[in-house]
Amino acid sequence: MKILIVIILLLTAHLQYRLWLGDDSIEQIKASELRLENLKKQADEKKQRNDALYAEVEDLRKGQEALEERARDELGMIKENETFFQVFE
Q1: 88 phi and psi, to 5 degrees?
Q2: How far apart are CA 23 and CA 39, in angstroms?
Q3: Which of 22, 60, 81, 87 pairs as cysteine with 18 (C-beta 3.0–4.6 A)?
Q4: What is the DSSP string of 39-71?
Q5: Cα distance between residue 29 and residue 32, in whole Å
Q6: pLDDT, tens digit (0-9, with 9 covering 90-100), for 50-65
């Protein structure tokens, strides 16, 4: 009977060690879950950025208005027969 109790205690100690300190311990699982959550956030941010860029590309492909707007804002261009006014505040 004493041998059975010793075996059970050793087995319990081994399982407790693996649970708290061994590979795939609770601490490592929590760290992996946190890392997974961070990676999901990064993926969502990049997906939103890609969607915005894709929408901008589609807008530039389809319409002249977006192209003209970019030329005006970024390059300071104006159309023929237009007068440029600069307002100082």
Answers
A1: -100, 135
A2: 22
A3: 22
A4: HHHHHHHHHHHHHHHHHHHHHHHH-HHHHHHHH
A5: 5
A6: 999 998 888 778 777 7
Annotated domain spans of the chain: 2-69
- Token pair for residue 73? 């804002």
72, 78 contact by CB (below 8 A): yes
| Token pair belonging to 64 | 């002249």
CA pair distance 49, 28, nearest whole angstrom: 31
State the Cα torsion 19-25-29-30 to the nearest 10°. Answer: 80
- Residue 40: pLDDT above 90? yes
Burial of 9-26, coded b for 16+ CB within 10 Å and e otherwise, reads eeeeeeeeeeeeeeeeee
Provide mean pLDDT across the span 62-72. 78
As given in the structure block, the two tokens for residue 43 are: 């993926």
pTM over 0.70: no
What token pair was written down for 58?
């589609």
